[in-house]
Design a protein that fits this description.
single chain, about 110 residues, mainly alpha, two-stranded parallel ribbon, 5 helices
């Protein structure tokens, strides 16, 4: 604790117990990919759309490392935000492009 307080002397850190502070700094690593799917929202699609069904089929077939990379694409980190996957949501949006091959995915 002393080493941390010396490097990060801000009084703000005292509101956390060590476990909470570790979660804030390190992130949560309890990946629940099924929960991620349940929390997904859709704009221009619905859960029964063929595109969405195909997306989740491919996603669940990915290796654990590739799923973490997808999470990093969405959030900027491969760690789950504090609060766990239950609190995390993202939206898959339909965007019309004249030539989809000339556009990049976005998050």
């Amino acid at each position: 604790a002393y080493g941390f307080k010396k490097g990060c002397s801000n009084v703000m850190w005292t509101i956390f117990v060590p476990v909470e502070l570790m979660a804030v700094i390190h992130g949560n690593t309890a990946y629940d990919w099924e929960q991620l799917e349940k929390n997904a929202k859709y704009r221009g699609y619905d859960v029964s759309s063929e595109v969405i069904k195909n997306f989740w089929t491919v996603f669940h077939d990915l290796s654990e490392e590739m799923k973490k990379r997808f999470l990093a694409f969405l959030t900027g980190t491969d760690r789950i935000p504090v609060g766990g996957m239950e609190k995390f949501t993202f939206t898959i949006c339909y965007t019309a492009h004249l030539d989809p091959d000339l556009s990049y995915p976005s998050a």
